[in-house]
Amino acid sequence: MPGLLGPLLTRPDVALVKGFYERPMxxxxxxxxxxxxxxxxxxxxPLIALDFPELSGLVQPLAGEWAVRRSLFERLHVPTGYAVExxxxxxxxxxxxxxxxxQVDLGRRAHRHQALRDLGAMATQIVAAAQLRRGARDPLDHxxxxxxxxxxxxxxxxxxxxxxxxxxxxxxxxxxx
Length: 177
Prior knowledge:
By secondary structure, the chain is α+β, with helices and mostly antiparallel strands. The protein has one domain: Alpha-Beta Complex (Spore Coat Polysaccharide Biosynthesis Protein SpsA, Chain A). About 35% of the residues lie in helices and about 25% in strands. The protein has a three-stranded mixed beta sheet, sandwiched between helices. Strand 7 and strand 8 form a beta hairpin.
């Protein structure tokens, strides 16, 4: 997207560009503006408010559309799942400062919404990445997390364990070419 590249091409002080957009919740013929992004509102924003308040000015921290300079990207740890964006934001602030992040409005995107239980794995990965960045987890601990959820079965409810990977890849700059 040219919108994401603009700040990288015109501002040498910018190292990471976050896209944001209107994400409506569409159910049949009903459209609720700005009601998409449940994990953002229920997990990412509270984590940001509590642990990374300097990122509270980001319109959509988990939009999934961003661009980054190679010189920064090769220094970032990269989670293997949905936490890559939050991790990149927190690590960018730590490495080059908040002013190195720019935001651009990308308009409107209508996504398919995931089932609520599927969002649990996404939320687990985001919380794990935040814990690592606050020092609450060992960076060498790449164990998978078992997320127990409950599903209706017939007239009852049964537990279902979901294995959620929470590992991270080391920065690319640590490898020889």
